[in-house]
Amino acid sequence: MDWILTKPTEEQLYKYYKEKKFAEELLYDLYKTKKKVEEILKKETPTDISSRKSNGNVVKPFKVMDLPLVAFRHVADFWDPNEQYQLSKLSKKSKERIKSAIKKRPSQLILAPPLKVILEYSDTKRFNFSVPIHRNPVYVLGDHPRFSLEFPDRCFQMINDLKDLFDSQFKRFAFFPNHLSWEDLSRIVNWINLDESLPSIPNMTMAAIKDNGMFLKILMENLEKNVHNFTIWGMERGQKSLKIRHNFEIKDLYVNDTSSLDVDAFTSLKFSRANLHRVDIANKEINEILMSWKMGRFGEKMESITVEKMTLINLRIMLIGLEAELRDPRITKRSWPLADGTPGWLCGGIDVKGANGKTATIWLYSYQSTNEDDPIPEECIQKYENAQRNWNRISGDDGDPVRDAIFLDTHLTITFE
């Protein structure tokens, strides 16, 4: 209605009021009629039913689709997205009718092959749309459930229909290697690459790469679109280390719930920031990551690596061969945002020079402040001075290790600039 874009006249308001009033009265009449019919049917005997039918008094189905638009919208509000979707598939007319009646509100789609597509609203409500799968009649060990024989075409059609019907945007692709064949994965990745309405991927998740390294390799080496958030659950080291080559870029990489990190796979990825959550990573592995970066083998655009918690940090192992330098927090100060994103300053730290001229800073013996000229706490200065006196024994193999080289249950951050 064009008049909605401008201030309505009294006549237009009155017309809308009459339509709304009519719809409400009609729905109320339908409700009363339904209740009345239910009461009559409860009391009817078989003889009454036979008599009523012989006289032509048969209760006919009510044609909901023939309701006026305002009344139809009220009815459509009682259907959940699954029912709205199923009704839209009846015909082109029903699709247009349903589409015009659905209240548009922000929604996002999650593709979780092979079993479902999820429609998610901002108020955390979720609705699952099942995708038919096909299994071999005789189960074979290691056999993956497969999409229907027409898949993935049916799945893609469902996604396009949901995007059109609910005006939804993609939120995440969730891949489960144990439930998806390589062939179907390749077709899904190709479909993502060809989708012009998706310039980049907001979120992508993958579960358990151990013994599924080829799955990750196919995904990474065939995908052509940048990913904003990529989460890998269980980036475990398999029997063989995994090397990957990919052309797209990852803004934020999240590695979760990993007891034995595949360092080769990790250093094969092109990411800006990495966050390791519940990852059991050893000092030697941190050293391998930093050495690989120092030699220019990976991390050209890397900004930071964060380990949520390391049970034990041993700097003598972590810094071997890196030629690390301890910085005075009172002198060396660098601009770096605080955890909440506001401007801040990093004072001190341990620096490692890279072949590309950049510097990696390990946030130990350091302090982060809001302003450049904020005073450095005395405790921080004392730790720095103690470490400086024993730096050769901390960072090298001169003499016995000292207490200052050990940190327990520590959050570790390394930044690159």
Automatic annotation (TrEMBL):
Q: What is this protein called?
A: F-box domain-containing protein
Give the source species: Caenorhabditis remanei (Caenorhabditis vulgaris)
